[in-house]
Structure formats: structure tokens, C-alpha cells
Amino acid sequence: MKNRARSSISAIAALLAVLLSGRVAIAEDYSIDFGADIDRGRDAGTVYCRFGQLCHAEMESLGLTVTVDMSRRDAVWAHVGLSSRELECCYFAEAGESMTIDPRQPLSRLPLFKGARARGELFIETQRVGILYLRFHFH
Fold it and tell me: To the nearest 5 percent, what fractions of the chain are helix, strand and coil?
């Protein structure tokens, strides 16, 4: 009888450990290593994110903020946004403030540009200033 009770307690303890470790994974569904190499300098870091919540990666020395939105149901696409303290810097191709990428790629290299923001169908000429790097890790 005592062996059966000990087995039950051990099984409950093991189940509880699995459930608790699952909660930690939910708190941080994925992480992103990010970095930028632009004409003003370089900055890099790591940010921990949750599916379905907007994730912010700050590069204060460059004045850049990268935002990533990814849903658990559609984790094959990440919506990446970029904002800057400077009016004319920095954007993705065609002066776009956002783009969609495949986070399953080993490393995403996104060219960055500066110039005026796009307005309507007006073509805006931009100048390449560097690259944004993103690497996703799923927990």
C-alpha cells in the first residue's frame, strides 16, 4: 500500500513539474535576436515575445524601434514594423514602414532606406543606409 501511495505522489509530482515548465514556455513563446548596421552605427540585442502580442525591440543608440506581431495560429509569417526618431530614416523598400517575413528562415536580412515617407501613389526615391537582421527562436 505504501509503495502505491509513493508511486501516486511521484506521478503527481512529475505531472506538476511538466505543467509548471509548460507555463514558463507560454510566458515566452519565442525570442528574437535583432541587430542593425546602418550608416550611423550598429546596435543589437535580444527580446522575448509572446504570440498574439506586439513585441518591441529598441535600438536606442540608433533611434530605431522594431515591432513584431506573430500569431500562434499563423506562425509562418511575422509582421515587422519599423519606426525611427528621425523623419527621413529608416524604412523598408519603397519607403514602407512594415513588411511580412518568414520567421523560420535562419536569418532575415532586411535592407533599410532613408528618404521621405510614401504618400499615396507618389514614387519616393530612397537611399540605402544599412541592414536590419532578425533571427527567431521558438521555445
Answer: 20, 45, 30
Q: How far apart are CA 40 and CA 15, in angstroms?
A: 52
Q: How far apart are CA 25 and CA 129, in angstroms?
A: 37
Of the two residues 19 and 60, the one the predictor is more confident about is 60
- Take residue 82 and report the three cell numbers written for it: 519599423
> All 3 cell numbers of residue 86?
528621425
Secondary structure class of 44 (helix, strand, coil): strand
Q: Where are the alpha helices (DSSP H) in 1-139?
A: 2-27
pLDDT, tens digit, 9 for 90 and up, residues 48-103: 999 999 999 999 999 999 999 999 998 899 999 999 988 778 888 877 889 999 99
Cell of 64: 530605431
Calculated CA dihedral for residues 83, 84, 89, 91, nearest 10 degrees: -10
Q: How far apart are the first and last CA of the chain?
A: 40
Q: What is the pLDDT of residue 13?
A: 38
What is the chain's Cα-based Rg?
Answer: 21
Distance, CA of 91 to CA of 115 (rounded, Å): 8
